[in-house]
Amino acid sequence: MASLELKGVGKAYGRKRVLQDISLTFEPGLTLLVGPSGAGKSTLLRLIATAERPNKGSILWNGSGGRGALRKTLGYAPQAVDLPEDLTAREFAMHIAALKGLNLGQADKQFGAITDAIGLHADINNRIASFSGGMRRRLIFAQAMLGEPQLLALDEPTAELDGETARKLGALIVGRAKAGAIVVMTTHLADELAPSARAVLRVENGQVAPPVARAPESVT
Amino acid sequence: MNAAVISASSLTTSLLRYGRSRALWLMLLVAPLGARYMLPFEDGGGVRIAVGDALPVMTSPFLGVSLGIIVSTLVLPIAWLFLRSNTTRRQPWQVEEVTIGSRVAIALGRFGADALVLLGVLAALNVAGLYLATFMLRGDALNIAELSFAMWVVAGPAVIGVAALRILFDARPLLRSGFGDFGYFCTWMGSLIAPIVTSKSAPSFASNMHDFAGFVRPLTYGAPGPADDFSIGGGFLATGTINLDVMAGLMSPGYLESRLAWIGVALALVVVAGLIYAPHKAKKKAVLAGRLGALLNAGPPPRVVVNAPAAKRAMADAIGLVVSEFRLISSGRVFLILAAAVAVMSAFTDFRHAASPAALLLLLFALSAHAGRSEARGLVALTKVAPFAPMMRRVAFVIAGALWTTLLALPAAAPAVALDVLPLAAASGAIAATVAIVLSTLTGSSFAARLVLLVLWYGYASM
What we know:
The structure holds 2 protein chains of 2 kinds.
Chain A: E1 4-13, E2 16-26, E3 29-34, H1 41-48, E4 56-61, H2 67-71, E5 74-77, H3 89-99, H4 104-117, H5 133-145, E6 151-155, H6 163-178, E7 182-186, H7 190-193, E8 199-204, E9 207-208
Helix pairs in contact in A: 3-4
Chain B: H1 3-19, H2 22-35, E1 48-51, E2 55-56, H3 60-85, H4 93-96, H5 103-136, H6 144-169, H7 173-176, H8 178-197, H9 205-208, H10 216-220, E3 230-233, E4 241-242, H11 246-250, H12 255-276, H13 290-296, H14 317-329, H15 333-348, H16 351-374, H17 377-383, H18 390-413, H19 421-443, H20 447-462
Parallel strand pairs in B: 2-4
Antiparallel strand pairs in B: 1-3
Helix pairs in contact in B: 1-5, 2-5, 3-5, 3-6, 3-8, 3-20, 5-6, 5-12, 6-12, 8-20, 14-18, 15-16, 15-18, 16-18, 16-19, 16-20, 18-19, 19-20
């Protein structure tokens, strides 16, 4: 069973301390990060996704501090990506699949299935330049789902989406969590996803409040 | 709204952005260091300027004019790169273009900032020139005024002109793209060739107006004998020395007037840029219909395999990475059509002097485009957390570049089993890809790679 552990993690940008002394253990299932803007949620996700290194403390994936093993099984959807406008969505996704070391033929089929489930399939051969904000958001989400990520770090994946599409994404996310992945995400739809979450963590002033109690059995 | 207020605001915000960018401070540091290499070394190294077959005796005005000429000829593409790929390349046009602010006023403000930054770099070069003069000039030959005057008269209008071209090329959608970089490259080449063609004409304001870089009169007018033959750079034989009266050239009929006129032309170009400014377009490509559309569009998406299983790791994932880079370099069917044409051409033409330059010209745009897009800062933030580190992707990119040039050279190698063309093809592709990825990594865009590759390509094609 996969495990992710943060031990005394702190992050500062210059003199500004964004996260302070965070110790947490994530187990398979969905964990929601909630809190006000600027509280440090996205920074925490970037640290988990190894996009940045903590100034203090360590992050252990299955008991090991090496980043290589974590990256082999990571799906990461940051809040904003400089998407290559002149590529089609499919070309971009296959680029990411190659960087993940995936079988490109299988990844192409999986990308088709994921985009079909979130209503993007009809546009995957169109250039990203023609995409709306919501379509870009779905593309960023779809690339994160490629392969079988055991750790999904999702930063507001449902922002800019209409309610129906957001629910479709939510279903895929919950499905991945049920399949045994550790899913950590920030979302403005916390109320809707909370019943399926293993834990809801409140991040405020760079610190994480004790988990809002959710019985593990709620993860069904 | 007051146009002066808009200009002042554009000027100050641009200067603030420049001031906060590391690249400016790097330029201010590199320029004085580079000054040493713009002047001839005693052992024959560095950039040399010869008149006829002789090297002019080093004097204060000749040292100044040497620095000025190197800037106004060889260094101008670097200034272009700096302006085009640096901090102010991104502007808030989505918001800006819906205001009532005068485009001319905005253009003038931004031009002012660009010009001031380049003139600041020139000032750093001037200081370095004075320092170097204390070593290179004998006795009391140092004349600060003449050295500085010579450098600024030659280089000042040239860098102001580049700043104006940057604003002009930012005014139209087509010129904002890679086509604009190609356009600048052609303009730069023209600025070097035009004065040489007219160098034999008598000195006058009109003849000097052909000399944007300002190097003809200072090198020819004050020579002791007839001198319409000169060399700038290196790799040529020079025998003996001559006493060149540089100040006479700078004060020759029509020269100073032409330099001032070039500054006027630059200002006029900026005003024109403001007048012809066309808003940015949302990048929504129209879907082409008919046969052309069928040829160029990617077509409908593939059939969905519902509940397709998750992709597994590939057996040879590194090869998959190279394949992916290979495909992305050739993104778009237009490239594939042109590549096929180049491959066919290589079977029937001289490989070194026709097919290979043609293949590289095609690839330099494709390589710089893909290198630029994959090194965009906001994308690297995502791709750097992939199992393949960015450096592995860059290596795969270089291999894919070499594969492309090799593939396009196969028809040239096949008929006579001329296998010697393949190493040349592979090496040229690998070098071009390396230049593209290194510059794109440093700048986070494709601008620098594209222009440098164009300059290198010109050298390769004309050798």
